[in-house]
Fold these 2 entries.
Entry 1:
Amino acid sequence: MLATLIRRELHTSLRNPQTILQPLLFYTLTIILFPLASGADNDTLLRTAPAALWIALLLAALLAGEQLFAADYADGTLSQDRLHLPDLWLLLPAKLAAAWLRFTLPLLAILPLLALMLHIPVANIPATAALLALGSLPLLLIGALGAVLTLAQTHGTFLRFLIVVPLYIPILIIGVTAGHDNLLGLAIGGHYALLGAFSLFALITIIPFATLALKAQHLP
């Protein structure tokens, strides 16, 4: 059942390519603004590179999370899923897995070019990519929670922002710190462990609560 739902979500994404292109273009344009703002100072770019990568990831994940349920809510698919899926909780991991694949994999594909634009050494790019890939999962999970809680709200964007951004801050701090340590050649195994712990904690807490919130929504 889970694999079937993931395939459905991926097929839906292919029919609506904006779900892939919008977060990716947003991430790319945000990164491009940092060199324009800081000028041609390579040292400044390198010092701000981890913050640039993670702030852009946070904002793009917020956009990707907003798209998780919007189309299904508008066309009634979400109502049908709530009525006919025997295990509604499977819808959450299916949407998150599909969102991670269509959001994170394209991002990792263009990351080497963006990293070189920020003057990140080539040797540090694999670790940077691994940190972003791991950090994107809890960001998407938190974004999914915000999307579910504000699903029936007419003007829920600001409310969603208030819900998810405070929860994003610990992940942002760990990610930026890990990025700086990576550039300095320090060990970052502890940062991987923290991001993994955040991901696991988010999985076992957000999916049940988001499922309950989905059942409580007044869907059309």
Entry 2:
Amino acid sequence: MIKRSGENTGSTEHNVSGSDHPNKIDAIGSNQVLQLNNNKDITLLGLSKDELLVTESKKAIAWLKPGMNYIYDSLISGTIQAQISQVNGFDAESPKILVVDDHSVSRMTAVTLLGMEGYTVIEADGGTAAIEMVRQQQPDLILLDVMMPEMDGFEVCRLLKQDEHTRLIPIIFITALNDRRSRIRGIEVGADDFLTKPFDRVELVARVKSLVKQKLLNEDLDHAAQVLFSIASAIESRDPNTGDHCDRLVRVGKAFGEYLNLSRYQIRNLMWGGYLHDIGKIGIPDAVLLKKGKLTPDEWEIMKQHVLIGEKICQPLRSMQGVIPIIRHHHERWDGSGYPDGLKGEEIPYLAQVFQIIDIYDALSSERPYKKSFSAEEALSIMFEETKSGWRNPQLMKQFAEFQLLRQQQMESDGVS
């Protein structure tokens, strides 16, 4: 039996008992009233005196009703945005379209039509030139001919969709081919749409506009997710004692998820949870987060807020909805003695249960300021002891132990110590 002192169970923070404490994050993420410094700022935005009066009155009301600030933020923002010149429904910087066709007449027809619609159009006369142009220019959409010498459109599409930097760019195949086999092959390599030569101008413009809007939306979501991952990485770097904790959680999460036959999306959420589970620690003071001794009851209540802060940070992104249960609930316990909601048994989201076991095992098997690292056998022994105490899902804990045994055997057979 492995003996331990205190309540440290391998979680990444110090655990002490304490009384209930007021929620300290009520103000986090609250909307701020948009303020313009003076009338000159309004004039520069092109607002009339009437618009200025409306804007200023909204500001005054917003200050009187802080809880409604977000309504007036949206109103003012919309007024300003209306002053920005637009092309085809997009901001003043017109979307960039790459037309790829080895036949100059066909290429120029598309270039002319799109140019008349206000797009910035660039050209390539073959597959190799197209790939180079994409890497240099990063277009918002590609019109791609299928039948080209040397490298056909299928191969160009396949290469671009496999590249992390170009996979979000929509590709419309423009071809004289109208057979079912060609369309199926196009779908297989990642084409987003098809147009048959000779194409109709109205149809071309409609499809281009729709896909460009979708691309810009996807790009915004993708960039927002990248920002969250960058924040999570910065948080991990605040504590040099955790090492590559998040990277290990991602690797083990993928392997254990596959062992449990989870779906592709569940495995993705489990891996993202590895990076984002402690993102809320950005709101925890260093004096608490990095304290080497035991936390006081008040400090522990502050530390426990990180799951709620993390949930609030990720809540606006739809792509993070599957990760949020992990962020909020990875410190719940099977018997209901965890936090923040005291959930019991199967009330705890399944992915949060899975992630919690991975997280605790990694913490136990890693050295921290308040504990030495345990061997695999010692770590599992401690976790089984906690399971008997009612903290873990017994079936899931058994599956994790079997997974670790198989993993260890595989590493030994591969000659990895």
